[in-house]
């Protein structure tokens, strides 16, 4: 009898499977934000490129990364659906 109870206790993780899926989605959002920051380099080292100051790199990408981190925090804090059924 005690081994059955121990097996059930081992299966109770701090986060549920849904939380891990949400964490993966949040991680993907963060990666997309960093990919949006890429580029804008100059063709030659003697010339300055104004492309580094584009809306995508200065405004959009940091907002996407920040949204990804907020999503990650929400994914961690979200209570699994079966947590209250004890």
Describe the structure.
The protein is mostly helical and 86 residues long. The chain is 63% helix and 0% strand. It is built from three helices and no strands. α2 runs antiparallel to α3.
Oligomer category: single chain
Class derived from helix and strand content: mainly alpha
- Count of strand segments: 0
| Cα-atom radius of gyration | 21 Å
Helix percent band: 55-70%
Q: Number of DSSP helices?
A: 3
The low-confidence runs, each spanning 5 or more residues with pLDDT under 50, are none
Average pLDDT value?
Answer: 86
**Biggest β-sheet: count, sense, barrel?**
none
Could you tell me how far the N terminus lies from the C terminus, measured between alpha carbons in angstroms?
18 Å
Order of helices and strands: HHH
Strand percentage? under 5%
Q: Secondary-structure map with pairings?
A:
Layout: H1 2-11, H2 17-37, H3 55-77
Helix pairs in contact: 2-3
Question: What attributes does this structure have?
Answer:
86 residues, mainly alpha, 3 helices, 0% strand, rod-shaped
What's this entry about, in short?
The protein has 86 residues and is mainly α.
């Amino acid at each position: 009898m005690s081994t059955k109870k121990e097996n059930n206790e081992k299966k109770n993780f701090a986060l549920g499977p849904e939380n891990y899926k949400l964490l993966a989605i949040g991680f993907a959002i963060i990666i997309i934000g960093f990919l949006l920051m890429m580029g804008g380099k100059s063709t030659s080292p003697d010339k300055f490129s104004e492309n580094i100051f584009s809306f995508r790199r200065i405004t959009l990408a940091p907002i996407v990364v920040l949204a990804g981190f907020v999503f990650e925090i929400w994914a961690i804090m979200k209570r699994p659906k079966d947590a209250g059924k004890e």
